Amino acid sequence: MVDQWAGIRERVAALSVQSAGNEVFGALGHGWVLEEPLAEDGLAELEEQIGVRLPEEYRTFLLHVAAGGAGPAYGLFPVRRTQGRWRWEGDGVDLADLSLLAEPFPEQGPDPKALEELLAQRPEEEDFDEIEDFDDAVEAWDEQWDAVMFAPERTAGAIVICHLGCALREWLIISGSHRGTVWADSRVDDVDLKPLLDDDGKPVTFARWYTDWLERAERTVMATSPDV
């Protein structure tokens, strides 16, 4: 499994010096910078603190490529040790409850029918005479929606690994039957989490997720850079 990461740092570094590197979506965010890989003892401490062994593709990436940095969208969220505790850093990482990482990721999300019914109850401004009453109704509805869609149990056994902007994020499943796969989070658009699938309809694992991004980035740079 380590072999699949051979040369990855060098390929990212090669893109960083190309004038067309910034044509790749999100590159201005991560700047093509990869953090240093984790040491074995650091990874062991991280896994001890979260109470679960990380998926093999991801843990070997952390050991042999980087602790985070250049990657899909605005970059792979880094994991860092701060004041004696390990944590991931990035937009939305707090959506993941680190105390629940050893719990299996749910086999299914909220009941679609219940979601449909709740969406049908969303307040509409034209139904209120006073804007204050509308605001109060929206606030109360939002609380109900968040309790269903953003309950910590919905993302037990998973971590946020990147964001695509506009509150769209992607998660890596750490525990359960979906361990090692990457899921899209479009809950901001009223859509439940869904697994990323390849062209054959198979769930995308971390290594495929990262290397596919790198290959797309290389094609983009080659197509637009006068230096290549």
TrEMBL record:
Sequence ranges assigned to domain Knr4/Smi1-like in this UniProt record: 37-216
Domain of life of the native organism: Bacteria
InterPro entries: Knr4/Smi1-like_dom, Knr4/Smi1-like_sf
SMART domains noted in UniProt: SMI1_KNR4 (SM00860)
Name of the protein in its database record: SMI1/KNR4 family protein
Native species: Streptomyces hesseae
